[in-house]
Request: fold
Amino acid sequence: MTVPHSAHDERAPNERPVDVIASQHLTVSTPRGDGTVPFFATGEWDAPQPRVERAVILLHGRLRNADVYFELARRARAAAGLDSDDTLLVVPQFLAAADVDAHAAPASTLRWEWTGWMGGGEALAPAPVSSFAVLDALFAALADVHRFPALREVVVAGHSGGAQVAQRYAVVAQGEAPLTARGVNVRYVIANPSSYVYFDTLRPAADGGFAPYDAARCVGFNDWKYGLGALPAYALASAAYVGDGGLEHAYLSRDVTLLLGDEDCDPQHPALDRSCAAMAQGQHRLARGLAYARYIDARSIAGRAHPLHRIPGAGHDADAVFSSAAGLAALFGERRRG
Reply:
């Protein structure tokens, strides 16, 4: 009997096939090739959903256990007093090659190196499609006014590895235009990632400020996904990648909320990124998140802050973070029922 992993069980090995692959499939078409991605969703995805006002795209962590995250999302939506009539939940699944092989998934199924999808990396097969293109495809589908005529908000949220996807996508996103063109608000909720994208060579200093980082201490400390060096093809093609500061301005202009577990401070956590590039951002996730919040606050655009919420008693735990009052508000907005 297979014992299901909890959504917060980031300590379990991720280099083994997933237990479940989602049954629905989204076609992702790019100039570099096509593929499909499995996903879970509430409601009839291919049928009109005239009452849906909000769509929440929740991104799983490194275990790729989209089924567990889908159930987490359903519990959170119920706790917020909402249902499938007004709030659509979507959980895409970024599979590894071993998952596809173990489950005999269709040849069209996109598959990545174990964690390559976290930074927007390209699929190994059947085409070099960025994981960010999956979000573009979801945005395009949600922008269909005939299927979602009442849609007013789309939320991209992730925990841990999924938060890395959400944070990086918010820097280089290409897919927002179809939604914003019809007045749909797009928000990002980032919870407990191991690292962030910095926009220059400054990194946290011992005095609480920031100082230029000595590259001799870590070659590539400022390369993607930790900085703007060696950008991937998707980022280079972003409309925001025009002139100095374009990607930074795009990120600062977006609606981003950061959620941090107040007890996610284990410097030896097995799933913590301990590469030198990540360690340049802090000793553990909480320290890195607090430092990055200060970094962004110092660079923020007038009238566009990125709020930070520390979740008391929560460690590296998606359930605890997203079921908290701050987590529910971030996912579903303040105007919840009940």
